[in-house]
């Protein structure tokens, strides 16, 4: 019961009025930053870091963690409302969130995102409270071989994602992998695929630029063409009755949410991964195990709930290696880590022992931050839905501006907005030709992780690839990947047979 | 291999400080920034260089050393190629400065395509040098460098040395180590120093040359063991750890933490920045940070720094040539 008393001490720290105020402020700021495309939690935390030099460390970390949290919730908002992922972690949320919005169910999608984030956040904080030190040891057992196996697993979850056109899906994955190799290679330190000798390619093609291009610009062009500018989205007034209906529909997804929360947490804990792969994997798995996978991508509420639960759970998870090992699990935790150093705390194995007030204050504040962001989100839904009612003539230019600002902001160079424009056009053409875009995005996120870990494991084992299968942990993960790879195919075949039996009447 | 120009700590600092203050005093009154200063970081958010830049920013803001904010801007692309190019393109801009690390020398050498010559930039101040130490997992029997060399020779090229990306500091240090002891290891590159340290603790690599700040936490927890440091004198925080020098091998390598400005700025402007960083260097926050992270903190400015940069660039060029990284 030592744990409980620690946690109670933590709550007494977290509920000091000043800390509580910092937390609420952080949640609100994070929410809006997450909702702005390109301005994710990384920038938010980086920009606001200096403010925290003037308050005690515990209040500071509570403030920054709240921003991180709020941004995780906020990322879903622009994914759903505008079809542009607010942050890389919210890409999978666009897959079903955007279709839901177009069907006039934006408020349902927003409720699903908020509730799923709450579930994911809460489950992960409980896991964090109970198993922090043993999990940190577990994370250390993940070497390059295990990381690679995990990436294979992530790819396997996406087999079914591209729809039925397997060659097109494979083509898009390969294209994504090629784009992912552009720039200076980390392992050899050599430049690769510097097209036309353009300086900008040295840095590589960032994921957010690709996502803003093909989803933001590409989607806009597509909408313009199909609707000829007359976009009408029937949106209902958000009332308590609608909230009730939304929650009722969401009840179906509770299993998905719970599973995604656990998955997200474990993926987040591993030093190499982070919230983006976690969200993508959760989406892929939800679809693979669904009884109605064909509904995914067309406005399935579980398709919003799964990635949102996972990315919030992962963001808590990635705080674990940050605090116990001093290794950031995501770019944002990397900045938090820097903050801790500035405040005079030393992250690492001894933090839990030497700075227990700090650790438990943070943990307790995470519980509270979850509740605060959930309530803020629900309260703000009418405002977000109002945005959708804006005439398209006003909304479209606004989205264009957001896309450019969002791509320019992270690195402050004009090269990225040009790339966004290019990808926007390419994305539009690909959509017209019916190429699935999700596998492309998946490949550019996971490609570098998979490549690095594969090459690291080959280098470590003198070119021998068998340890990837024979090391116990990576062997198990690879086994799961193989199962997942086969499962949707078998399921697909079964369905096709059934459909044939029902004399081929399918939409 | 490289020769340290480090003079006695106290004396060197005092000398540099006197020089800087004398140089800065009359000029500081003449020029002051009129808008926020861009503080370019040669690395991505969250890395060692980034943390340091943000820490410096916090010292400047907290103690009001400058009238305007210093805003860190990350340009980590291409091992700092982006940042170097940006500094070149901002020739004559009074409101841009950059925090450097050793890719300041190596990136222009390895990628002549970016068209950057660091001699054109204006040196402001060197604030510290980070050090390198050879580490092994503490569950091994390796207690000394002799044990280490024996173990590597036994295991042959299957010995795994973990480090940061190829061509970066860790790989250079590994190459120096291999040459000095006539051994050959398999170098496994990872993304950042923290990940490298975790892979050592997890047993996925056999040794590392982490900076003390990356591994000292694990050492205190009894997970990793330092064998020897690549410094001229023993590191204060690792008193019992011998230097390679004391073991008869001239292995010294350090990572500079400096600030530079674009070329073509007036001496008044440079003097202003020197003044600001002089104050940073003298702050108690900075002294604490140096101690906590086992940094070797001594200040260099002006012509001394120019010479230091030239020496370091030359020795890195020689190192890279030896490794076959450049011709």
Give a written overview of the molecule.
The complex is a heterodimer of chains A (507) and B (327). By secondary structure, chain A is mainly alpha-helical. Helix content of chain A is 72%, strand content 1%. Chain A has 2 domains: 2-142 and 154-187 and 214-465, no CATH class; 466-507. Chain A has a two-stranded antiparallel ribbon with strand order 1-2. By secondary structure, chain B is of the alpha/beta class. Chain B folds into 2 domains: 37-129 and 255-323, Bordetella uptake gene, domain 1 (D-Maltodextrin-Binding Protein, domain 2, 3-Layer(aba) Sandwich), CATH 3.40.190.150; 133-247, Periplasmic binding protein-like II (D-Maltodextrin-Binding Protein, domain 2), CATH 3.40.190. Helices cover 43% and strands 17% of the residues of chain B. In chain B, the strands form 2 sheets. Chain B has a 6-stranded mixed β-sheet, sandwiched between helices. In chain B, strands 7-6-8-5-9 form a 5-stranded mixed β-sheet, with helices on both faces. Chain B starts with 8 loop residues before the first helix and ends with a helix. Chains A and B meet through strand 1, helix 15 and helix 20 of A and helix 2, strand 2, helix 3, strand 7 and helix 7 of B.
Summed up:
By secondary structure, chain A is mainly alpha-helical.
Strand composition percent of chain B: 15-25%
Architecture of the largest domain in chain B in CATH? 3-Layer(aba) Sandwich
Q: Which percent range fits the helix content of chain A?
A: over 70%
Termini Cα gap of chain B? 19 Å
Instruction: Estimate the global geometry of chain A from the Cα principal axes.
Output: globular
Helix content of chain B: 40-55%
Query: Numbering strands along the chain, what is their spatial order in the largest sheet of chain B?
Result: 2-1-3-10-4-11
Question: What letter string, H or E per element, gives the SSE order of chain A?
Answer: HHHHHHHHEEHHHHHHHHHHHHHH
Main beta-sheet strand count, sense and barrel state of chain A: 2 strands, antiparallel
What's the overall geometry of chain B? globular
SS class of chain A:
mainly alpha
Major β-sheet profile of chain B = 6 strands, mixed
Q: Identify low-pLDDT runs of chain A.
A: none
Total tally of structural domains of chain B: 2
As for the CATH topology of the largest domain in chain B, it is D-Maltodextrin-Binding Protein, domain 2
Number of helices of chain A: 22
The quaternary organization reads as: heterodimer
Structural class of chain B: alpha/beta
**In the CATH hierarchy, what is the class of the largest domain in chain B?**
Alpha Beta
Order of helices and strands of chain B: HEHEHEHEEHEHEHEHEEHHEH
